[in-house]
Amino acid sequence: MKLKKNRKFSYAPRFYKGEGNPYELKHKFDDQRQTVNLPKGIKGKWNAALDDYQGNRNDNANKRVLIIVGVLVLLFLIIIGFDLSIFLPKS
To answer: Can you tell me the distance from the alpha carbon of 30 to that of 41, in angstroms, rounded to the nearest whole number?
Structure first.
């Protein structure tokens, strides 16, 4: 009573003309970040994340985030009924 061996196929996609294996799973941001596949440990992860942040600074994104946060805070204050007149000059 021998078990059957699985068949092996050498399948090549018909319309794929690129390089490498089309079925290889790769992280989306591997080319831009250094924080992928780091040695384990909190200190190593923290240091790599700081290096990645300092190496890829984007001031426009930081300004955009601050503007969005400011608008959301203003909307929250309006919704809860906070008196916004304290921010205006008295006349």
So the answer is: 20
Query: Residues 25-40: what's their mean pLDDT?
Result: 66
Q: Is pLDDT above 80 for 40?
A: no
Does 75 fall in a domain?
A: yes
Q: Supply the range of the domain harboring residue 83.
A: 59-91
> For 48-87, what is each residue's pLDDT tens digit?
777 777 766 677 777 888 899 999 998 998 888 888 777 7
The reply to whether 29 falls in a domain is no
Residue 36 burial by Cβ neighbours in a 10 Å radius (0-12, 13-18, 19+): middle
**Residue 25 counted as domain residue:** no
Give the model's confidence band at 47: pLDDT under 50 very low, under 70 low, under 90 confident, else very high: confident
Report the number of distinct structural domains present in the chain.
1
